[in-house]
Amino acid sequence: MEVNQRLEALRVLMKENQIDMYMVPTADYHNSENVGRHFMERTYISGFTGSAGTALICLDQAGLWTDGRYFLQAEDQLKGTGVDLYKMGQDGVPSLETFIEDGLGQGGKLAFDGRCVTYGQGLVLEKIVADKKGSLVYDLDLIDQVWEDRPPISKEPIFELDVKYAGESRASKLARLRSAMEDIGVDCHIITSLDDIGWLLNIRGRDVDYFPLALSYLIVDMDKAVLYIDEEKISGEIMAGLISDGVEIRPYNAIYEDIKHIERKVLLDPDWVNYAIYGNICDKDIIIEGQNPTIMMKTVKNEIEIDNIRQAHIKDGIAHSKYLYWLKKEVASGRIGRQTEISVSNKLESLRRDQEDFICPSFAPISAFGDHGAIVHYEADGLSNKELAQGSFLLNDTGGNYIQGSTDISRTTALGQVSQEMKEDYTRVLQAHIRLARAKFLYGCSGANLDILARQPLWDSYLNYNHGTGHGVGYLANIHEPPISFRWQVGVKPATRLEEGMVITDEPGLYIGGSHGIRIENELLVRKGPKNDYGQFMYFEALTYCPIDLDPVLVDMLTEDDKAYLNDYHQKVYDLIGPGLEEEERRWLREVTRPI
Questions:
Q1: Nearest in space to 547 (alpha carbons), one of 580, 575, 570
Q2: Is 6 left (phi over 0), alpha (psi -120 to 50) or beta?
Q3: 123, 129, 444, 469: which one has the fewest Cβ atoms less than 10 Å from its Cβ?
Q4: DSSP 460
Q5: Element (DSSP H or E) covering residue 56
Q6: 224-242 confidence digits (pLDDT tens)
Q7: What is the DSSP letter of 338?
């Protein structure tokens, strides 16, 4: 069925159930950023394939809310579907909640699958509906009734992350969590976020696209823990280890019945626990709202994790440098026209797969040539796949999962000679990247304090980019790991301060519609610097080791400090990556990391 046919089939079910509005978020039952194919309901009903957004279906109209990363993509994919685009954060565009509040009539009925909505958002919607004297239904999955040939839920086996990679045992992590629970004053903690469960129990899986995580829920008490997961995924050896650490195994969906009988004080994180779990807890007075303590625990990497992450980046840097060597040779030989966005992306992935301990890509690759680069999260497909040519930029934003950790890197490459305007844009983005990467700051600063360092070279020319400058990176988990970020717009919650051991990306960009896009991204490690009478100073260590294209750089635009940082960075790239390359590749690397 086409999207408009799916919408009509859904509206038939809405009328049968007397539903006025049906909301379809992106998430699975765990509020995961990326979801398995079984959970792609929003994509199915709207046709929009971006990783963030919410669809709202009314009886006479439909809308899709998404952020600035996806405006161009959504405009293109929603054409002719009957779904209108609502650009989040833009002047005159109502938020999803405001639209519901204004559009739901007195006594109206709003419905959604409560397993796919956080209970924090559910409470907001609950109040809107109550003010309308209407009703809210959270136990209907109407998309499932419309979706023909829906992919099944993944049954991939889990694997254990050895302590030589995790750096801390499962028993130690559980003890730390229970200590935090005691401080909070709760006897029970329900965890539904897959990366937190994976980190806490040192397990990983293959149930979520690109993120090596396992579909599961976890209830932690003071004397035991219950893992809700399909038992067939667990080998005998892993099962024995879990049981020895006091972890009981129950069927994946059994949690919804089990929580009806909870009577002890229970900690719930409203940003992650779904509304259906909240709704099934009979006594709401036992609920204590608060952030899941493991979120901050896992954000700060231990020394073993950091050492492993460095090794992952060396492997990734070797693969990516080999790719750039190959790409520049294709340009020089005149063969670049034989390549496409997808073919060069596949080449890069194949070089990653050649590296030892590679598991899978860490997110859907962005390979965008020319004007496609202006689409921030562009994904090439069979229809959009552009042939490459000389005279413009190729933007690659990709990453890999290795047993030693996850990588996220963006490089923008000039294919032949590019215009003076493109060189100026590229150099401004490079300045933005460097200004943040070489920052020194006092302990207590957050990414909100530092974001202006990256934006200033662009703001000076009245330019900007419509996304955050950086995000936390998980250890073989979510490539976007909350709560840290570089973002001057922090929302209603205070920004999280940067702690030693956190890993965060530095990825400013510039996007010129109809022409080109530029993004340069490295991962940074937060480090402690000197401590003196003024306080504890902090700085960043670059973890990504890969040459930055010097061909489009206008050196005269750079300051002496900019050049010194870039030269030092490139020397480190040569020292770490050179030994992993062939002789001809190593000569090329020496040239492209030359001092400027």
A1: 570
A2: alpha
A3: 444
A4: T
A5: strand 54-58
A6: 999 999 999 999 999 999 9
A7: G
